[in-house]
Amino acid sequence: MSGQVLLIEDEPNIIEAISFILSRDGWTVKTHSNGADAVEMVKARKPDVLILDVMLPGKSGYDILRELREDPEINGLPVLMLTARGQSKDREIAERAGCDAFMTKPFSNADVLETVRALAAK
Amino acid sequence: MPRDTLTGSRIRERRVMAGLKQSELAKRADISPSYLNLIEHNRRRIGGKLLVDIAHALGVEPALLTEGAETTLLATLREAASAADMQEAEFVRVEEFAGRFPGWAALLAETQNKVETLQRSVEALTDRLTHDPHLAASLHEMLSTVTAIRSAASILAEPGDIEPEWQRRFNRNIYEDSARLADTSRSLAQYLEEADSEASETNAPQDELDGVFQKSGFHLPALEIASARVEDVADELGQGLSHAARWLLLRVLARYRTDAERMPLAGCADVVAASGSDPFALSARFGTDLASAMRRLAHLPEEILPDPVGLAICDGSGVTTFRKPLPEFPLPRLGAGCAFWPLYRALARPMMVHVEVMEQSARAAARHRAYAISQPTGPARPGEDVLFESHMLIVPEPKRDGSEKVREVGLTCRICPHPSCEARREPSIMVASAPRKL
User: Fold this and answer.
1) What domains does chain A contain, in order, with CATH numbers?
2) What residues in B contact A86, CB-CB < 8 Å?
3) Domain residues of chain B, as ranges?
């Protein structure tokens, strides 16, 4: 597979592991760790798939996603949300905000890879 | 070297292999069964003379208990492989993996044990999670750390070569994250201990009642005496309780006293010595109903039982009104247990006794026999509906090869990893293998 994935996550070792498995699969991986300027980063990078953590410094992943979905320039971007909160209400919030896939921690590398491939193929 | 935390598990493993009851081993080692129970669940550190005494009682070298056996490592690796749905061709090579890469195998096993420990923490904390932002934040931190460990460990465990530089980086990440996990766990444990020692006025009355029994134990010698006054015992145990919690305590203690009167301790000890933790035997001996016999067994001193027993009681709405959990069979704090428990199924068929062997999905190592019955809460009255409540006695059951049906159950949906369950009320936070496409 090839294409660009933007990973917005503030946990350095998760960033390193996900970057490794995606890079090995042929993806170009860009990373970012701050929520405050995440929307600008997405618009500048124009990735094929966005992996977005929910709990970020500066701005939550839900708020970032809502802003992306309201922006005609970037509102069709496939988004995979990652969170440690797996309750039904969190899934509902993610669904309403407009995410394409939702995974709860601790997830497996294989699932991340499979989901990114599926989202890119949409 | 990291501190070994599995000595207790090895003692339990060796005791079961030797066919010894917990109470028998405790007697030989000159400690109480409840203390041995804590040791076996790795909740008390053990060393020195006590370790030597237990090893002697088990007929093994002390080093075998502290250093572990090859079987323990292999069993842990197999658990890790099962949890990850590893392909059969890789799964059968576990011994080869442990033999060729002992360091990596030990690291993977240690990570698996940490994940299991974390799962137990999740089970214990999940009910409080929605009510306590500090717990939610701590758990978020722990899950993120475990995710990082799991991802790095998976990469290292995959077949094929990884460049030495990446190996070093992921190895270092696992080391750093393990240390962070230890710090977070320690801080969380300290927070919980402090919370437990504070006044419990902000807790639900049922929590306060649980706290009373955690502190005093479930056997209350003061209520075994014929002249015992329930109010006096409630005054002593219920200091600082809210009005609602004291009302609940009085109700439970009054039942205890009535049961103790109908089934005196000495007679119960005789029945247990002859028949084990069998509610039918106790009921038959004293001519009582089965639910009373279950409650009596749950309140007997652990020293006279082959193994500690658990008990759950719920009313007709399914709300838990009494809970005595076991280390290997926890009970959710705010009700909402697994719909497959006989406790709830008994409500649908009042007065029919359900007896079956259960395994909790996340705890394949532990098996329990459940006795459950739903009985009227009072006498029948003309033209009035009868209210029912259900009792479920939980008795540890040794694993046997046999044809007896074993029912797989969960604890509560939110933390049950069972992938496809008809009774599921909500998605599980313990299953990450099925990303939800929205």
Assistant:
1) 3-120 (3.40.50.2300)
2) 414, 427-429
3) 7-197, 308-438
